[in-house]
Input
Amino acid sequence: CLFTAMDIAHTDLTAPGYYAGMGYGVPAGMGAQLSTGRRALILVGDGAFQMTGWELGNCARLGIDPIVLVFNNRSWEMLRAFQPESRFNTLDDWRFAEMASGMGGEGTRVSTRAALRAAR
Output
């Protein structure tokens, strides 16, 4: 997600470039929106979302509404890079978009650029 974000646009960017760490995006994006008042766009992988994505359940209480894109490749790729022979890096499809309503949000699953463009 860090490398994708660098290709989107020249804008404010908060990312864990040091070792490309996991789990930073959701809480950092929420904090950015709280501190600036500007709506955050959060890019997060499915493995990192499993760690900290549930913080989104606090958004309604905090009065924020970030846009969250979960890159779901059903894998802990960062861990696979260090230990490719391990089979625990392959994950099931958790269908994150369907979980959004339980956290007070709206979720849409897309798999193409056109569908992403059309999503609201």
